[in-house]
Amino acid sequence: MEKDELSDIISDESRIAFEPLEPRFLSDSLGRLKGRADALVLPVSTKEVSQILRYAWEHEIPVTPRGAGTNLVGSTVPMEGGIILDLSRMNRILSLDKDTLTAEVEPGVFLKDFQAYVEGEGFFYPPDPGEKESTLGGNISTNAGGMRAVKYGVTRDYVRGLELVLADGTVLTVGSRNVKDASGLSLKNLIIGSEGTLAVITRCILKLLPKPETSLSVLVPFGSLLVGIRNVLSILKANVNPTAVEFVERKVISLGEEFLGIQYPRPDAASYILLTFDGREEEVEASANRAKELVMAQRALDYIVLRDKELSDGIWKVRGALVKAVEAVSQQEPVDIVVPIDKSSEFIDYVNQLEQEKNMQMICFGHAGDGNIHLCLVRGERDEETWNRELKENMRLVYEKAFKLGGLTSGEHGIGLSKRPYFLSGTSSENLEVMNRIKEALDPKGILNYGKSYITGGKEHAETV
User: Fold this and answer.
1) Residue 463 has pLDDT above 70, yes or no
2) What sequence ranges are listed for the domain FAD-binding PCMH-type (predicted)?
């Protein structure tokens, strides 16, 4: 790599660095998977991104795109050296079009900042993954979901258009502000969820909704986790239209309480369902009352309406910090398996049995309304060799069970490096072949986010990560 050539593109010394780089740029949020890179660049324009990729293309240098680095599966870990392309300085909200209910932003804008901005203008951006300091570009790259997906869908449903830079530096615009589009192949949807393996996102046109008139959260404690999970289907079938349906075990709430110093009501519960309703006030009240009738008839211990904002915010804060709360106690492997919603209770029951059989703590919580189960396998006092051996075996078992139930490897975190072996084992060779053909068409030199997800080699590489 010619440092002078790269410095000619990024002449601002504060936006370029060469080896050795700060360790945080070589990993993800968990910091356990570590890569290596020769250079870090922080572009501020599409032109600079294009020039960097053209240089990398000509010299066949690997490029690892990066946003806020909040990823949990190693998607931002540089595998083969090369350039880390950090888009965090491209963080402007460019426009808000109130007539088309769209906004145009750069990829480095934080989710929390964008949501606050549009809500201040009377609008609403529904995608709501737990990490609010993730970037919008990162959310699009993993098709992030979150707690409101049961009513509003996931990030994909709110992306109208993208400006992209391909591996060879070509700038491309896909999608538009139009609501409908039957004009050829949907290149936009091909990029969403591709984890930076096909193109680099430099601008985003996002769909907005009018801001709901009101929102109301409810905490429902149950005597057992499975009774709580079984209530979810009743709520969904009753057409009460909840915005969020979250489930969590008492044992993990205890960790969250200790981590944040916030107490949940009804500590005698074994599990909780956390509901939110939003919309017009009379509709919200009617839905909440109907949900109360349903759950109290099916063995709920209580129905706690969280009208106090401080209490409601605290309850949700604990829910959002659960992965960090577990990590504060012990190293753990976070998993975001998704199964059909009618199979959630069967999968969780299997995990609880496996926990007893294998004597490894396994903590379940997540998005009950869409079958996205967050599972933490906890290391405890195991030494490194024992932890690696037992984790590998137990991960294999939980993924095998999920696949048998018709589930998938990831609901919202993506595949990256850490979930790649399980994705490859659970995906047909025909599907993998098509994915790799698409990769070869858009990036024939294979420089973008090398070795992630489906890329290169197929199933024979599943155990090499």
Assistant:
1) no
2) 33-211
DSSP state of 179: S
Please provide the CATH number assigned to the domain covering 3-86.
3.30.43.10
The pair phi, psi for residue 48, each rounded to 5°, is -65, -40
CATH code for the part of the protein at 93-210: 3.30.465.10
In this predicted structure, the answer to whether residue 458 has a pLDDT above a threshold of 70 is no
Whether a cis peptide bond, with omega within 30° of 0, leads into 20 is yes
Helices (H) and strands (E) in the chain, counts: 15, 18
Considering the domain 214-322 in this protein, what is its CATH number? 3.30.70.2190
The pLDDT of residue 456 is: 53
- The mean per-residue pLDDT over the stretch 248-261 comes to 91
Same fold yes or no, 214-322 and 330-404: yes
Q: How far apart are CA 51 and CA 53, in angstroms?
A: 6
231, two tokens: 């209530």
Instruction: Work out the mean pLDDT of the chain and round it to a whole number.
Output: 93
Domain residue spans of the chain: 3-86, 93-210, 214-322, 330-404
Q: How far apart are CA 407 and CA 404, in angstroms?
A: 7
- Give the separation between CA 204 and CA 457, rounded to whole angstroms: 32
Q: What is the pLDDT of residues 416-440, one digit of tens each?
A: 999 999 999 999 999 999 999 999 9
Contact (CB, 8 A) for 164 and 172: yes
State the chain's maximal CA–CA distance in angstroms.
71
Exposed (0-12), middle (13-18) or buried (19+): which is 172, by Cβ within 10 Å?
middle
What is the Rg, in whole angstroms, of the alpha carbon atoms belonging to the chain?
A: 22
The whole-number pLDDT of residue 379 equals 96
The answer to whether 304 touches 264, Cβ cutoff 8 Å, is: no
Instruction: Give the model's pLDDT for residue 455.
Output: 66
What's the topology of domain 330-404?
Answer: Alpha-Beta Plaits (3.30.70)
156: its two tokens: 């994909």
**Vertex 270: Cα angle to 266 and 271 (nearest 5):** 85
> Residue 63 is encoded by which pair of tokens?
């490029």
Measured distance CA(201)–CA(50) in Å, rounded = 11
Rounded to a whole number, what is the distance in angstroms from the first to the last CA of the chain? 26
pLDDT digits (tens, 9 = 90+) for 133-169: 999 999 999 999 999 999 999 999 999 999 999 999 9
With a CB cutoff of 8 Å and minimum separation 6, the contacts of 460 are none
The CB density around residue 192, as the number of other CB atoms within 10 Å, is 21
